Amino acid sequence: MRCARPKPESRSTQRGFVLVMVLVLIAIASLSMAGLARQSLSVAAEAADAQQRFERHWSTFTLQRALLADAESLLEQEALKTQGEQIVWPLIRRIDGTFQIGQWTYEFVLADEDAKVNLNRVLREDPNSYLTVVMSLLQSSGQSSLVPAPPPLPGQPSQRTLTPFQSWGQVFLPRNSGQRKSLAREIQLAAGEMTCWGSGRLNVRRASEDAIRTLCRMAVPTPTIEQLLEERTSTNLTGLEDLIGRLDLKAGERFAFQRLLTDESNCFTLWLTVSDGKREWTQLTISPSARGNPSTWQSFRW
Q1: CA 272 – CA 146 distance, rounded (Å)
Q2: In the prediction, which pLDDT does 145 show?
Q3: What is the greatest pairwise CA distance in the chain?
Q4: Please, what is the average pLDDT of the chain?
Q5: Rg (CA), the chain
């Protein structure tokens, strides 16, 4: 028995089916290749971002080690360069500058935190004047956009510690997400005369007149403070005891100055702002020890 030949339309249908399958396979292959290309681009972009982050973080850490590890010596050297042999208090309490490392621009501010008004000390000495002091220091720094947060009330857990303020987020009210772009720079400007860190005693060798008046008026009469500030401009002062020894003080006034002032610093901060021309990152690092041990550092990032 002879086999029946396929009808012409059957062969045509088969060819059409094969053609459709080929087109489908081509489409699938094209989509797969496009997906691989996108994935490759994504991986390449992630690798480039990771490399940039590594470079940025490594440069940041290197600058931190170079500046914070010897902050006291750097400030003393800068004072000698600025004033020469005729040293007159107050000495400089901050150094700022700019570095260019590859595509990154680094702006830094190295500061002595013991030469600033400690807000924890203010809250302990006179809680009722705390907000007034913060507003006054904000105005003197030229920063008026930040709003102080209400201080913790007596009896609250945070008020029972010696340092209820341990970050700027506890000092100022939070900002809306759309207003956060310049927040770091605003806090950096405001922090010129106030701090949350340090011993709480002002370094009389570096603190500004306003800082000394702000802290000492809580325990010492204004005329006595002005006498100290006038005598502070003398040359050849050797330290705090030499300074207050030149004044005719009552026992209580002497004790108050010894309790509120010092002639040494142990706490330093470094503000680093990194920019590539498109984006900006800011990091605040606090070194509570003059030895600059990285294991004791505390950092905040914006």
Answers
A1: 20
A2: 84
A3: 137
A4: 85
A5: 32
pLDDT at 83 over 90: no
CA distance 113 to 109: 12
Cα 215 from Cα 260, distance rounded (Å): 7
DSSP H or E run through 265: none
Nearest to 186 by CA among 138, 225, 255: 138
Give the phi and the psi of residue 32 in degrees, each rounded to 5. -65, -45
Residues contacting residue 234 through CB under 8 Å, at least 6 positions apart? 88, 246
Who contacts 112 (Cβ-Cβ below 8 Å, separation ≥6)?
A: 71, 75, 93, 94, 203, 206, 265, 267, 268
| Alpha-carbon distances, residue 271 vs 21, 114, 141 (angstroms) | 64, 16, 17
Assign 3-class secondary structure to 49-87.
HHHHHHHHHHHHHHHHHHHHCCHHHHHHHHHHHHHCCCC
What's the pTM value of the predicted model, to 2 decimals? 0.80
- Residue 74 is which amino acid? L
User: What's the pLDDT tens digit per position in 126-177?
Assistant: 999 999 999 999 998 887 789 999 998 776 666 557 789 999 999 999 876 5
Q: How many residues does the chain have?
A: 302
Q: Is the pLDDT of residue 109 over 70?
A: yes
Closest Cα partner for 275 from 107, 108, 110, 109? 107
Q: Which amino acid makes up residue 50? A: A
The residues that bridge with 282 in the sheet, in sequence order, are 273
Contacts of residue 300, defined as CB under 8 A and 6 or more positions apart, other chains included, come to: 167, 168, 283, 284
Q: What is the average pLDDT across 198-205?
A: 96
CB contact at 8 A, 23 and 30: no
Name the region of 180 (left: φ>0; alpha: ψ -120 to 50; beta: rest).
alpha
More confident residue, 179 or 149: 149
Residue 225 has a pLDDT of 98
How does residue 117 score in pLDDT terms, banded at 50, 70 and 90?
A: very high
